[in-house]
Each structure stands twice: as C-alpha cells, then as structure tokens.
Design goal:
By secondary structure, the protein is of the alpha+beta class. Among the domains are: about 20-60 and about 205-380, Multidrug efflux transporter AcrB transmembrane domain (Multidrug efflux transporter AcrB transmembrane fold, Up-down Bundle); about 90-205, Alpha-Beta Plaits (2-Layer Sandwich), CATH 3.30.70.1430; about 450-545, Alpha-Beta Plaits (2-Layer Sandwich), CATH 3.30.70. Helix content is about 60%, strand content about 10%. It has helices at about 10-30, 35-60, 75-85, 105-120, 140-145, 165-180, 190-205, 205-225, 230-260, 265, 270-295, 300-330, 335-355, 355-365, 385-395, 400-415, 435-445, 465-475, 510-515, 515-530, 540-575, 580-605, 615-640, 645-675, 680-715, and strands at about 95-100, 130-135, 155-160, 185-190, 420-425, 455-460, 480-490, 495-505, 535-540, 610, 730, 740. The protein has a 4-stranded antiparallel beta sheet, with helices on both faces. The protein starts with 11 loop residues before the first helix and ends in a 13-residue tail after the last strand.
Length: about 750
C-alpha cells in the first residue's frame, strides 16, 4: 500500500461515529451541570412559564365542548354539510323533549307541551334553536310518530345549531331550566344527541382539575415513600409543574391561532403524561446522582457523572414517546389527531425539563435535597437490593423459566382480546345518572329504542321528480330493521328531499351499525333504477359506523408507523437490528395481555360488554412508547456491565441495580394513569386502568423477568449484528480522553426494595 490514509479496522468508523456522538452529548450535559448554568436554566424556565401563561390568558382558546367530529370525507359529514346548505332549518343537533305520565297524558299535560313548543319558537328561547317539530304543528304520519301508541308520552324535537364553544350545552341548559321539574306526576326530560353531549360535557367539565390535583398528590406520596426526603419529593414536582405550565400555555396559544379547541379528552392526558414521565426521568437521574455525591465533593461534578450515564437513555426514551405520539397527528379521526398534538407537545416540554430544569434544581439544592438522609463524601451507601439481587440471580441461572412463565401468563391474559366489542352509544359511557339517560329510558319504553337518534337520508336527483325520492323511500322501508322513513322537507329548487329514518333497534348497537353499508347500497341501487341522482345516509348511526371504519384505518396506519419509528430509535440506541425486533414482539404481547385483562374486568366488574373504540389504539401507543423507557434503561445498563463481566453476570448485576428504579418509576407512571379511574366516563376509566395494568405488567413481569431471561437464552447474539464490547470499561472525561471507570453502585429506592 502507498503512503495514503491507513485503512481503519473493520467497524472502527462506526465506533468512532458513536464515540463522537457520545462526546457531543457529554459536552452538552457538562455545560448544563454547573452552578451558573443551573441559575440560568431556572431563570429561563421561570420567564418562559410566566411569559407564555400571560400570553395564553390574553389570548384564550375557544371554550371546550365535548363533541365527536369526523373528517369532511366521511359520508355522514357530507350529509351534515348538504343539510346546512339546502335545509338550514334542519341544521343542528336534535334535543328531544319527552313528556311522560304513567297511565296517559292529561289535557293539561298537552297544554303544557304546546306551551313548551311555543316558547321554543319565541324570541325568549336560545338563539341557536333552528327549528321545532311537535305533534300539534306537524301533520299526518309525522304528527302521529311524536305521540306514543298508548298515549303516555309525546315528543318535541328541537334542533340546536352548534356555533362554537359551549353554545350547544348552553342551549340545552336553558331548555332544561325552562321546562323545570314537576311534582304532579308529569315527567319531562331533555335527551337526544344534544342532551347526551351536554350531559357528557357537564360530567367531564371538572375532570382536568381533579386529575391534576390527584396526580400531584399521588406523585408526592410515592416519591416521599421512596426517598423519605421531603424536599426530594417536592423538588421534582415543582420542576415538572413548570413543564406542565409551559405545555398547557403552548396548547392554549396553538388553539387560539388555529381557532379550534383541542378536545377535552385529549387534554386530560396532559397532566398524567407530564408528571408520570417527568417523575420517571427524575428517578433515572437520582439513581446515578446520589451515589455520585458520595464520590464527588461538589453537586455539579456529581450531576455531570449522573447525566453522562443517563442523558442518552432519557433522550432516547423521550424521543420514542415523542415520535409515537406525533404519529397520532396523522390520524384522520380528529379526536386521535387532537390526542397526538397534545401529547407530542407535552412530552417535548417534559423531556426538555428532564434534561435541563430537573438537574438544575437538584444542583442548586445540592446535598440538602436529600435531608435527612444526606449522602456524605467518602461514605458509599449500601443499597438494600436483596429482593432484586435474588431476582437477578434467578434470571441469570434460570433464563428459560424466566422466559417461559411470563410468556404463558401474558398469552393467557391476551385471550381476553377475543371479547373486544367497540362501544358507540354515548349513553353507555356514563358512570353516573344523567337526565339524558333518564329521558332515553322513557323513549325506549314508549317509542322504541330507535327513537333516540333517527338517521337522515338525503336524496338528490337531476330533475324535479318526486317519484325518484319515493322509490328510495320504499326501498329503505323494505328493510326489516327500519321502523319508518318519513319525508321532512324538500329544498327550494325541488331537487333535494330529506327523509327521517328510524330503526327498530338501538341505533348504536353493533348490529344496527352493520346495516349502514347495506342500506346505503340499497338506496343507491333504488336511485339508479329510476335515473341519475345521489343518495347519502347520515345521522348518529351512520356517524358511528363511519367512526368505526375510520378508527380502524387510523389504528392500522398509526400502529405500523409507531412500530417503524420505535424500532429505528431502539436500533440506533442499542446499535442492534435484532434487539428492537424481539423487544417490539414482547411489547405487542404485553399490549394484548393488558387489553385482554381490562376487557375481562370490564365484563366482570363494570358490567359492560363493550369498550371504547379508541382503547386499542391509545393503549398500544402508550405501552409501546412508555415501555421503551424501561427497555432502554435496562439494556443500557446491560451494555455497560457486559464490558466487565460475562453476559449472565452482567444481566444479574443489571437487574439488581435497576430493579428498584424501574419498579419505582413503573409504580409512579401506573399510579398517574390510574387517576383516570376517578372520572365519571367509561372511556377514561378503561383507558386509565388498561395503561396502568399494562405498565405494571411491563414493570414486574416483562422488564424484571422476560426481557433479561430472553437475552440470557439468546446470548450475545441478542445484540446482532453488533458484538458487545468486552474487557475493561471506560468513561469519557471532560477533556475527551478515556479513563478507566470506577464502578459506582446505585442507590435503590428503599420503599420498593
């Protein structure tokens, strides 16, 4: 060879690149871990939080209302748009006023009903009541359909236009105040889709505040039990509170700029993710910071050592969660999209706080933060790790058992997935009594279940030919599932006819939803038989069907994208191709086990055969993203230990040293999600319990036994194609040179071990 560049040893370029990235990150964390930088960081976060909060208060977001929306491409959305154009008097959400008297309505009751209908048409009624239909002003079949056959009940239908914010809820509240309550045996209830949404908003209006308060108390209690240091329990909460303030302000400002409020269900996850993930990052830092304080005189030096060990795992963990939640923003269903926006902004803020503000605050308080058990220089503390030492020894010696038993448990729980049946009836989501639920029971008793939410059929023909509309009407009436199809209006140009279609059964039942594509096909075939034209079917049942279809598409797309993104991050961090594959397979089994378990509990405890349509997607995203935290933390320790010890011993030492930290972090994260079990809506309870159970399974079964056991079985090939480094361990110095590393024991959380 000539005098050219000496060819590198095979793999040397790769190792050099990794070393350069490690040096770059170490350089950044070294700059953060100084007393001067700590003051600057705390001041910057304070200014940022106050400034953004002031801006958010001056530019408040639109008021939030609970609403389910669909993309414009959905057929039910097209129906709503065309009705607004051609039948402005029919635009809005139906509020159904039910008047009922056991044994039959009296003449005085009918006078009362006429008075209510007259008030709804007057200037005293809410301005967004667009039309009113009652038995006294209607004619023919429509009038008859509003009075029960036994004469015990009658209906008044009022359409309420949604004009942004809480306009729908305010109108329903005004109607309820006007009709009042009766003590003479006449029962009046306001129900229908408008009443249901108003009640759901009422039930969930205080959720965010209660979730925030309970989450704060829970984190304080858990950290207090783990570290038995008042300041150490409080300081991370203060730091994470800054991140929550910044994230909330950014969401408010974003909503103001966009002009559309993020759904309340999406913002309910914000405090949970902030305090759960933020506390996890704090625990990871403390696991290295406290031992370092026994070897370093100054807090900044100890923090530099700690951040060099955990900054990369924290960055990788936060990156996984950020990318996974960001994938939700590509969902077509607005609610999934809103959750993605809220959580992506949230995790970005908490990750930044975890790498800057939390270390800064800990540096400023120094050893005093650990009072009364202050770590002393030159006095290494012996962590009480007997439990995790036993677990680690068992996994190292019996990797097959540690692998097979958890797999059998997870597979058994996963069988519950076969019971999954999505829920679309909003009334079934209530966990507390509501007026709309009481009204629905009266409707069901007197008029049949289908009267709750009639569907809308829009027939458009090229010429003014009423026969075309009648043909479609007869075709739909021929279906055994349809109770009635009644014409409610014709457009001004005579080319569009609007029908009201009522089902015989519950309009939200899965079997009824399954009829929508068949009825759409039947109506279009009937239209084609008499000439050109268009038939669209909308309304609550059609919207639920469209939601189910779009949600399934979202799930397939988001799951595939999350798997790709998470595998890339894990692959880059672990420097492996094989490891992300078996880790994601294990994660998929954990997801199925958590979903199956919550479905078993749903049927046996909550007496609900259905579950939230969003549950599988949200559970998958949360468990895949948050579970990666513990994978990264555990495997980074294995990679560190294997430089000095055989793989089996490295696994044993890694499980021993990280078991308490991972367990504490898992308990905190599961605890924060379990706060959702306090909300009065089944969707929130199911999601909170499912994620909490999944995290506990991940913490105590997967991360403690299955993952290290599987690695022990596979051996060094578990990291293929990268060969694990062997020999003496090295630690990067501030000057960029290597020095031999001194092993530093982790301090295990006492309350857990």
């Amino acid at each position: 060879m000539g005098r050219g560049r000496v060819p590198p040893i095979q793999g040397q370029d790769h190792r050099d690149r990794l070393l350069s990235m490690t040096r770059l990150l170490a350089g950044l964390t070294d700059r953060i871990a100084s007393r001067r930088a700590a003051w600057v960081i705390v001041a910057a976060w304070t200014v940022l939080a106050i400034g953004l909060t002031v801006l958010a208060q001056k530019n408040p977001a639109p008021p939030e209302a609970f609403a389910f929306t669909l993309p414009a491409s959905a057929e039910s959305s097209k129906v709503d748009k065309l009705i607004a154009r051609d039948f402005p008097q029919s635009k809005g959400v139906a509020a159904t006023i039910v008047l009922y008297r056991h044994g039959g309505l009296s003449a005085a009751d009918r006078v009362e009903a006429q008075s209510i209908a007259g008030w709804l048409r007057s200037a005293a009624a809410p301005g967004n009541v667009t039309s009113v239909v009652d038995p006294f002003s209607a004619a023919g079949p429509q009038a008859a359909s509003l009075v029960s056959k036994d004469g015990s009940a009658l209906l008044i239908q009022a359409l309420v236009a949604e004009r942004g914010g809480t306009s729908l809820d305010d109108a329903v509240s005004a109607i309820r105040r006007h009709v009042g309550t009766r003590s003479d045996g006449l029962v009046i209830r306001v129900t229908g889709p408008a009443g249901i949404l108003a009640d759901l908003t009422l039930l969930t209006s205080k959720i965010l505040g209660s979730i925030l308060l309970i989450t704060l108390l829970l984190v304080l209690v858990i950290l207090g039990l783990v570290y038995r240091a008042p300041l150490l329990a409080l300081l991370p909460v203060v730091a994470v509170a800054f991140a929550y303030t910044v994230a909330s302000a950014l969401l408010t400002l974003g909503e103001h700029i966009a002009g559309v409020a993020v759904n309340g269900e999406a913002t309910a996850f914000v405090p949970i993710l902030v305090f759960g993930a933020g506390t996890d990052y704090t625990l990871f830092i403390l696991s290295r910071y406290r031992p370092a304080l026994t070897e370093e005189r100054e807090a900044p030096s100890a923090m530099r050592r700690a951040l060099r060990a955990v900054a990369e795992p924290i960055l990788a963990s936060g990156g996984v969660v950020f990318l996974a939640t960001l994938a939700l923003t590509l969902a077509a269903l607005p609610l999934n999209h809103d959750v993605g926006i809220a959580l992506a902004i949230t995790i970005a803020c908490v990750l930044l706080a975890g790498l800057t503000l939390i270390p800064g605050i800990l540096i400023l308080f120094g050893r005093a933060a650990f009072w009364p058990a202050v770590p002393r220089l030159g006095h290494p503390e012996q962590a009480r790790v007997r439990l995790w030492s036993t677990v680690g020894t068992f996994v190292a010696r019996r990797p097959a058992i540690a692998t097979v038993l958890p797999l059998l448990l997870l597979a058994a729980l996963a069988t519950g997935v076969l019971q999954y049946q999505p829920r679309f009836a909003t009334l079934d989501a209530y966990l507390r009594p509501s007026e709309s639920l009481q009204g629905y029971e009266l409707l069901k008793q007197s008029f049949g279940a289908g009267s709750l939410a009639p569907s809308q059929v829009l027939v458009t023909f090229s010429s003014r030919d009423p026969a075309s509309a009648l043909t479609v009407q007869k075709a739909l009436m021929a279906s055994p599932a349809v109770e009635s199809v009644t014409a409610t209006g014709t457009s001004q140009d005579g080319r569009v006819t609007l029908f009201r279609m009522q089902f015989r059964s519950d309009p939200y039942a899965p079997g009824t939803l399954d009829l929508i594509p068949q009825l759409r096909s039947t109506a279009r075939q009937a239209m084609a038989s008499v000439g050109g034209g268009q038939v669209l079917i909308g309304g609550s049942t059609a919207s639920a069907y469209d939601t189910r279809t779009i949600s399934a598409d979202d799930t397939r797309m988001v799951v595939a994208l999350v798997l790709i993104l998470v595998s890339l991050v894990l692959g880059l961090f672990l420097r492996s191709v094989l490891a992300p594959l078996y880790l994601l397979l294990i994660n998929g089994l954990t997801f199925a086990a958590a979903l199956g378990l919550v479905l078993y509990l749903n049927r046996s405890v909550l007496n609900s055969p259905t579950a939230s349509v969003q549950l599988p997607l949200l559970l998958f995203v949360f468990l895949t993203a948050l579970g990666a935290d513990y994978n990264i933390f555990l495997l980074s320790r294995v990679r560190e230990e294997v430089r000095n010890y055989p793989l089996a011993q490295a696994i044993q030492r890694s499980v021993t040293s990280t078991g308490g930290v991972i367990t504490s972090a898992g308990i905190v994260l599961a605890g924060t999600f379990s706060v959702l079990a306090t909300v009065p809506v089944r969707d929130g309870v199911e999601t909170g319990i499912a994620v909490a159970l999944g995290i506990l399974l991940d913490t105590f079964v997967v991360r403690s036994l299955l993952v290290p056991g599987l690695m022990g079985l596979i051996g060094r090939k578990a990291w293929w194609p990268i060969k694990l480094a062997t020999g003496a361990a090295h630690e990067l110095c501030a000057d960029g040179q290597d020095r031999r590393k001194r092993p530093t024991p982790d301090l295990e959380p006492r309350a857990v071990t």
